[in-house]
Specification:
single chain, alpha+beta, Nucleotidyltransferase, domain 5, 3 domains, three-stranded antiparallel β-sheet, two-stranded parallel ribbon, about 45% helix, elongated
Length: about 280
């Protein structure tokens, strides 16, 4: 398990083994510099292809670790904090993504496996701590962006250990889902490890279609691999509402008739103001 904390004058990387009771905290600050032992540990993980497990680590933690691995000497508190802020403030969630083929260390993201990256399912680690009835549910003790005192750094280290313990508890809770994804990845020779259930179904369906009829879902285009799609300037809902759908209640019949009459050219936000 691993988790990061980034502030203007301190960087913390906490690591907790699956079966260990002792968390290692690597710190980069004015009072200490753990870059060498952190780098050695990361190189060991990379050499042995040992997974780093986290919560939203693919979206946040690993891109920072990746930058550190690319330039460990030049990576300091300021550059690592700047990277964290760039990830947080960007409007493009893929802008800082490091794709699996480029990662030095395999990643297992519990946030993605449980589809918490979906707006409707978004769940924080704090909410999971409460739902798992954790002995301690702690919120970040210091406002983001604060220049920390030594005492605040010590408090942040304790907070980080609490988050690591909760991540491990959720990892153990998720063992069945993780094992299922490992079996799929081994059986079909592709990476399903961080897929949510919906993405597993979609990719499996596409895989079998491509096996039966190569080129039915994807083809090579000027930008590489592209989905085979038919562009439509408009869509008549009457063509996609199944004919056996019937309602007895007058109000539902009215909605049904109204939808039948709609022709849309855009699928996002069209019915946001529907009353």
């Amino acid at each position: 398990m691993y988790d990061l904390e980034t502030f203007p004058n301190v960087f913390l990387c906490g690591v907790l083994g699956c079966d260990s009771e002792h968390a290692a905290i690597y710190e980069i600050s004015d009072r200490r510099d753990d870059r060498e032992p952190l780098l050695a540990g990361l190189h060991q993980l990379a050499a042995n292809r040992i997974e780093m497990v986290g919560f939203n680590n693919i979206g946040f933690d690993y891109p920072i670790i990746h930058q550190f691995l690319n330039d460990p000497t030049g990576s300091n508190v300021a550059s690592l904090y700047a990277k964290a802020q760039a990830i947080i403030t960007t409007g493009d969630r893929f802008a800082h993504t490091v794709w699996p083929s480029d990662r030095y260390i395999p990643q297992l993201d519990l946030f993605k496996i449980h589809h918490f990256d979906n707006v409707a399912r978004a769940t924080s680690l704090k909410a999971l701590q409460f739902n798992m009835r954790s002995a301690s549910v702690e919120d970040l003790p210091i406002p983001p962006g604060t220049m920390l005192t030594p005492d605040q750094i010590d408090a942040l280290r304790n907070y980080l250990i609490n988050d690591l313990t909760s991540t491990r508890a959720f990892y153990n809770h998720s063992r069945e889902q993780i094992d299922f994804r490992r079996v799929l990845s081994e059986r079909y020779g592709r990476d399903f490890l961080n897929h949510n259930d919906t993405k597993i179904g979609k990719d499996y369906f596409v895989m079998r279609l491509e096996e039966a009829r190569p080129g039915s879902c994807y083809q090579r285009g000027p930008n590489g691999r592209e989905p085979v799609q038919t562009y439509r300037s408009e869509m008549r809902l009457a063509d996609v509402i199944l004919p056996y759908i019937r309602f007895q209640h007058p109000e539902l019949q009215r909605v049904h008739s109204w939808l039948h009459a709609q022709v849309i050219a855009e699928t996002k936000g069209v019915f946001t103001d529907l009353n």
